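Ligand-bound model needed. DGJ.
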Amino acid sequence: MSIQYDQQRSLFHLQAQDTSYVIHVTKTGYPAHLYWGKKLRGMQLGRLLELKERASFSPSTELDQLALSLDTLPHEYPGYGNSDFRMPAYQVMLPNGTTVTDLRYESHSIRSGKPALAGLPATYTESDDEAATLELTLKDELTGLTVILSYTVFEAFNAITRSARLVNNGTDTLQLLRAFSLSLDFAHDRFEMLQLSGAWTRERYVHTRKLEPGLQSVESRRGSSSHMQNPFVALLSEGANEDHGDVYGVNLVYSGNFTAGVEVDQFHSARLFMGLNPFDFNWRLEPGEQFQTPEAVMVHSGHGLGGMSRSFHDLYRSRLIRGTFRDQTRPILVNNWEATYFNFNADKIESIARTGQELGIELFVLDDGWFGKRDNDTTSLGDWFVDRSKLPNGLEDLVSRVKRLDMQFGLWFEPEMISPESELYRAHPDWCLHVEGRRRTQARHQLILDLSRTDVQDYIVKSVSDILSSAPITYVKWDMNRNMTEIGSALLPPERQRETAHRYMLGLYAVLEKITSAFPQILFESCSGGGGRFDAGMLYYMPQTWTSDNTDAVSRLKIQYGTSIVYPVSSMGSHVSAVPNHQVGRITSLETRGNVALSGNFGYELDLTRFTDEEKETVKAQVALYKDVRHLVQFGDFYRLLSPFEGNDTAWMFVSKDQSEAFVVYASVLQEPNPPLNRFRLKGLDAKRDYRLDEQGTVYGGDELMYAGLATPQFHGDYASKVYRFRAVE
Ligand code: DGJ
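Prediction:
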């Protein structure tokens, strides 16, 4: 069992393959955080708790233990109001209006396996021996509030997951003002905090900053995880980099408002926290009710950021993502969005699909504009029936025309939205999120359906399911194109209005659970104006995400590099689009657009029928190459070699789990005159084996490639790139 308990010392030691996490329950019943990092032996770890008597500004709760102050005790789930002045993990309002509670250890249980989280996405086990779970039960005597802290150790993945369940075992109504998923205190603040931040069309750029006294955090108040901040932070120890040093990553399995960050206190200890955003949040907990927080996934790596990313990738690919497509290679697709926008008919679609088939592409995806009267973005969201003026013979006919070409068929939806200009809105004007008497702010001419309502959930499940049952559809792109405003629900009473945003997420998850399990043969890809909801919560239901609306190859280097810090490459949609690029106007070669898009779930998003014969030959070669390497790209180990955030050149590579094959991508943004001769080193190969480079047939030692490196390619012209395919010589 990977969780040891020493009753005498009141010590819990959670051990994954290379990681330890240690908790001690103090004599007064507070769960203290003692350690998280490289694996430790044994149970003599109580001495890790060092306390020191402080001035009265950090008061002691026990007169006979002056060194024990809640303000300096490293805590697993700190409260507020009785002398810990740092960021609390939870806060509850009592009927008398006060917010002071005092949680103390009551009991614990240790079991193999991992219980599911009611109504929420979470990592899972397939058999009980894959993980062990500790539940620490804490209780506030005065109110009866009980908090169950859950810790699951995924031994083989070096990951620990955490969540909290707050139960009202008292007789009065309680109001939850905050309920984090994770909180823990590091003894020092010698870290850099890494975050993934950006905007629409430049999502998940890597930003780092040195920790400073006070609060540093990222959060979303947009009703979705957002383009702007991702629910992830990592702490890098002094000197840690891509390949070396201790890195601590935490990621929230949630798609709504979140907060995550670090508070550095007066003694330079660093409190790491993550959970639902307490901003504009309030949850009524009636006697007997419970509230489950989302799950936070924690990965420690002693091998730098790269090691951390590979642990997240492995865990998410096999124990977060579910369903038929979890272990299947994904099809190469062509999507008509940037080819036609709203302006298409069945013949046009068939001609793109036919050309795709000739080039070896496997799936055609019909994007926005096939339903209601949707000739532009001002209308019809919610009216999920086929637009007969564009597709007079209906969807079934179009699907069969595409299927006859031996292509699979995929379809776009934006089910969470409603256009004011729609039949649905005319019938149900109160079905959207809104506040009585206030303006309903539109974005892209649309409002958001109130998914906290079960009648709205039922409508979405039925209308989407009816379409999916009407034709042999094998892929769905589930889009969502705005953030929440006027967050209110017509059905919730006043005292529950501030539950709406979280209830929306629970409603969305319930809808996704129903639809994705009813159609297991369909590959679902989530999307939110590109990567506005690229998070672990969505990956639980849909194994891939449209990474960004920005398809420019140069922009994509940063976007895909940043995304790979947490999320597996098999979850990133990446397509070749037309030039000049529609988002940034840049002209890059078809070769470079292909080489960058090959590093993800590959596809094309342009009018294939406009290609010249020469371009078609290039596309055929790209498609063939992807078919040859996609098992590496989607399921191999990913190594970042050169960062686009640090220089002109980007390189990354994919290595098969048995180290017998590798695929390397190298891209250079601007050409330098008369550049120096340089080398770049590969990673993850077997130093004792030899590898043949397909292109030239040259055989290199794995040691040579990793320690001496390959000569940096010499390019002529900007936005150039090159790929390398290696196979071990047996
Ligand atoms: C936003 C998505 O990110 C695009 O790929 C496309 O599907 C449009 N929506 C369609 O409206």
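The chain has twelve helices and 38 strands.
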